[in-house]
Amino acid sequence: MRKCKVLLLGFIFLGFAQLASAQGDDPLPSWNEGDTKQSIIQFVEKVTNKDSADFVLPAERIATFDNDGCLWSEQPMYFQLFFAIDRVKALAPQHPEWKNKEPFASLLKGDVKAALAGGEKAILEIVMASHAGNTTEEFEQIVKDWVATAKHPTTKRHYTEMVYQPMLEVLNYLRANDFKTFIVSGGGIEFMRPWTEAVYGIPPEQVVGSSVKTKFEIRDGKPVIVRLPELSFMDDNVGKPVGINQHIGRRPIASFGNSDGDLQMHQWTTAGDGARFSLYVHHTDAEREWAYDRDSHIGKLDKGLDEAKKNGWTVMDMKKDWKVIYPYELK
Amino acid sequence: MRKCKVLLLGFIFLGFAQLASAQGDDPLPSWNEGDTKQSIIQFVEKVTNKDSADFVLPAERIATFDNDGCLWSEQPMYFQLFFAIDRVKALAPQHPEWKNKEPFASLLKGDVKAALAGGEKAILEIVMASHAGNTTEEFEQIVKDWVATAKHPTTKRHYTEMVYQPMLEVLNYLRANDFKTFIVSGGGIEFMRPWTEAVYGIPPEQVVGSSVKTKFEIRDGKPVIVRLPELSFMDDNVGKPVGINQHIGRRPIASFGNSDGDLQMHQWTTAGDGARFSLYVHHTDAEREWAYDRDSHIGKLDKGLDEAKKNGWTVMDMKKDWKVIYPYELK
């Protein structure tokens, strides 16, 4: 009995020691001290403090993150578009008709600008040609191979190296505080899932994104899921709260984005009862990353900036708030 | 330093004591000893044993469960249909035209059989009238109120009391072994989510089901998600692997169902590499529950029985395998 008590006390002591150590460490070492960093920490501390009026049960601690421009870079164009173009090139020998058909003809000649001149319709055609017609397993392998080999034109780094170190720290910090972290992105759900677990610690079942229609069938006695060249769901703008509701089924208490495409996600998140937190990553660093907002052709942040100010959401400033951008800068 | 070692040893000892105690307990006390129970335990033991060739990493331990007839009863008709009928009755004063319009007219006269004579079209009309036209928050509250008050016509119990005690034990047993448990049901995703966490320990984000289309909008300055009277996704038969792929993004290693509607989920699950487990709940107990299979109008299990035999899936026998059916029998 006495021995048990000693053991129990030891156990409690170890628990406290661990807690003290965790609290002593800076959970966001790549963030400069200031209001932005403090707004994140204060939010996490109040929703996890049992004595706080803002305490939130762990099961309700849902945090959603946009991907492009929020967790990894998105310039000079969405990384998924680089994938689509590489894929069109790889498939070209099977499609001789593409030589005389836009947007493929320009793309194959290396003139991306001309190919994309057709606007959304052209992009959709490229995406469907490059993202459908195979099984989910085949597509997963294609994405894995691309992620392992393709390099960004400017940095010459793998695309998955161009994730934001400070945001990785936010993801880890939230999870260490019993948050469940989700991606809610306009990007393709099956384009992200093959690598989000290794890169962000976010498992496939916590990835929400745009999708093509799929169909189950038995091929040569083996069940497969086939990717059809038809858009099923666009997880952007007004689609984000819909995607959140469909996949998660409860309202996030925190959301992170960087563009007007995240506006409705922030509105949906902050309209809930109790403590809420929404943050915009503001791309202000033309030297270390890119600088763009109200007039950008990609990741446009215009209405969102105004709404953030009006509603008291955190607008982070990349140049001012981040000590480093990419993890490889730490090495 | 010496003190630290003692504390550490104490900590390790406590860990082992806990482990031994957990293994000494029967994880499935409501299951009679026999092949069915052993097939579940053997599967879990081999995929969780690091020295086994069948070991599966915790992140990959995905188990999917049908709901109607697998986790709770589904006779004399799907419980969600009782909800729909109650809802039609509640809404009738706002719809005077229903008095002369089938299937509503028969339903309001209490003649459910005549109302459902219109087949799938009639059911869809009833479901849309009763499940759409409100916001997700309003619908959630309506479901919560119904679950708290409505009673089953035969047992006079709340519907959520008519869940299967032996299946609750399977859910707990799997989760204790680091499985993530999901519902994959033909039932409405937003009809299940308001109560699955309390009843099954399955959070909303792990519920996959059929759904209506939804739309985000700002109403009186407040963001809402509106439920539209249009089917978005039917999570049954060939829809189940599609729903699994869409929501979970990886293939389950174990699946549990009770009807031909679960056949494709079992096929998809067992076609993966490594150890796999699929089980059919076979309703064989006319006294304690219901007995039905090949000719049933609900939860028909015909082709599934043949496929289970052919593929070596476990077919559980309710009469033989379960000591109790419902949790309230234990009290």
Can you give me a brief rundown of this structure?
Two copies of one chain form a homodimer. Chain A is α/β, with parallel strands linked by helices. Chain A contains 13 helices and eight strands.
Description:
Two copies of one chain form a homodimer. Chain A is α/β, with parallel strands linked by helices and 331 residues long. Chain A has two domains: 28-77 and 156-330, HAD superfamily/HAD-like (Rossmann fold, 3-Layer(aba) Sandwich), CATH 3.40.50; 79-149, no CATH class. Chain A is built from 13 helices and eight strands. The first copy, chain A, has helices at residues 2-24, 35-48, 79-91, 104-108, 112-116, 119-131, 136-149, 165-176, 189-200, 239-247, 263-270, 303-311, 318-321, and strands at residues 62-65, 180-188, 207-219, 222-233, 254-257, 277-284, 291-292, 314-317. In chain A, strand 5, helix 11 and strand 6 (277-284) form a beta-alpha-beta unit. Chain A is globular, with a radius of gyration of 22 Å.
Overall average residue pLDDT of chain A: 93
Number of strands of chain A: 8
How would you name the oligomeric state of the polypeptide chains in this document?
A: homodimer
What is the percent of helical residues of chain A?
40-55%
Q: Into which percentage range does the β-strand content of chain A fall?
A: 15-25%
Distance N terminus to C terminus of chain A?
A: 52 Å
CATH-assigned homologous superfamily of the largest domain in chain A: HAD superfamily/HAD-like
CATH uppermost class of the largest domain in chain A: Alpha Beta
Report the sheet with the most strands of chain A, covering strand number, pairing sense and barrel closure. Answer: 8 strands, mixed
* Tally of distinct domains of chain A: 2
Largest interface: A-B, 44 and 43 residues
Give the structural class of chain A: alpha/beta
Contiguous uncertain segments of 5+ residues of chain A: 1-23
The CATH topology of the largest domain in chain A is: Rossmann fold
Q: Number of helical segments of chain A? A: 13
Gross morphology of chain A is globular
Radius of gyration of chain A from CA coordinates? 22 Å
CATH-level-2 architecture of the largest domain in chain A: 3-Layer(aba) Sandwich
Order of helices and strands of chain A: HHEHHHHHHEHEEHEHEEHEH
